[in-house]
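Open question from group meeting: does this chain pack into something compact, or does most of it stay loose? Before anyone orders reagents, we agreed to write out a predicted structure and look at it together. Recording both the input and the output here so the notebook holds the full record.
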Amino acid sequence: MLRDLTILFLFGALVLSGAGCATKSPDGTPSTAFSTAGGALAVAADKGDADAQNKLGILYAKGQGVPQDYAEAARWHRKAADQGNAVAQFNLGGLYEKGHGVTQNYVEAARWLRKAADQGYAAAQNNLGFLYDKGQGVPQDYAEAAKWYRKAADQGDADAQKNLDALNHRRQGIPGLV
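Structure tokens returned:
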């Protein structure tokens, strides 16, 4: 059973990555490879595989092999996020931040991004820093923004380093930012 789920997941990931197949048909429509990947991922996702749930959410968000449907993307990301999948927590936070498939809600965005950031996910740390920087969903707090930018930058996140540099430039003289 676990072996079958693993095979389905790996097949879906392989096809989703585009290895050895075109991602679009000659007429520009998504290829059946994506539909097959989506079907294989759906089976694993329905059985509770958090990685498959997150990847299926990505397919729905991008409209690859399935009709683009942000609400369905949010549903699958939430299932994976509720299981502690940091990437899904980041993806769900992004949907709340943009209002795609859910009502835009910066408080919810910050909540999900923090869960992923607390697990060390650099992109979530950068985005959480941005929310603190702008005061969206959390109180504006430049020291907190710098802390999260720094954590992401320390992992090599170039966007976080740029955000930290810009924050330091704008806020010269604020203790703890340099």
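Observations to bring back to the group:
The chain has two domains: 1-68, 110-178.
The longest helix spans residues 2-17.
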